[in-house]
What we know:
The longest helix is centred in the middle third of the chain and has 14 residues. Strand 5, helix 3 and strand 6 form a beta-alpha-beta unit. Helix 3 packs across helix 4. The chain is built from eight helices and 13 strands. It has 233 residues and is α/β, with parallel strands linked by helices. The radius of gyration is 16 Å and the shape is globular.
Amino acid sequence: xxxxxxxxxxxxxxxxxxxxxxxxxxxxxxxxxxxxxxxxxxxxxxxxxxxxxxxxxxxxxxxxxxxxxxxxxxxxxxxxxxxxxxxxxxxxxxxxxxxxxxxxxxxxxxxxxxxxxxxxxxxxxxxxxxxxxxxxxxxxxxxxxxxxxxxxxxxxxxxxxxxxxxxxxxxxxxxxxxxxxxxxxxxxxxxxxxxxxxxxxxxxxxxxxxxxxxxxxxxxxxxxxxxxxxxxx
Length: 233
């Protein structure tokens, strides 16, 4: 049977659920069955973990800095009250069950914060030195900067390379990585672009958007989704 993959959704202030089709397409083409997860299911997290084979944490608004014991700076963008609580509870439950998790952009950050890691609320305001353009002025399937992957890491094995090109649409980034996770990808300016768990069979976070490049026929991005779906079997 094909594995069931839960995908978290972004929502706006009218509480309309929003998810780019590229997430659904990438999971479907990799052999999974995508199920969109609504908010407000905190009381049913146990049932969801039992029935779902994997969790894909999608992109969206910024993370509330109160979750990593900071107050908001002026450069903080819009946050999603309620979504943070729900997704972090989902992450912890999936990790406890050792079921596969793939975090993309905001999802990569949620994965880190849920386990006690911290964030840059705004990389241009808080990181020292020259910072690359991480919100590219180009189509979503265009690759704009390089990422160096850790040799022999899960993600470099999947990509079959230690230097890759990625797209970029973020102004926040992982700062201190949570216990039990390894930094396995960095940009040339030091921004953490990928993390993975040392304790679980498949728990990976990436700061870029491989769902967009996978849908455009990028083979390494397609391999990432295939590896994720395979781990969910």
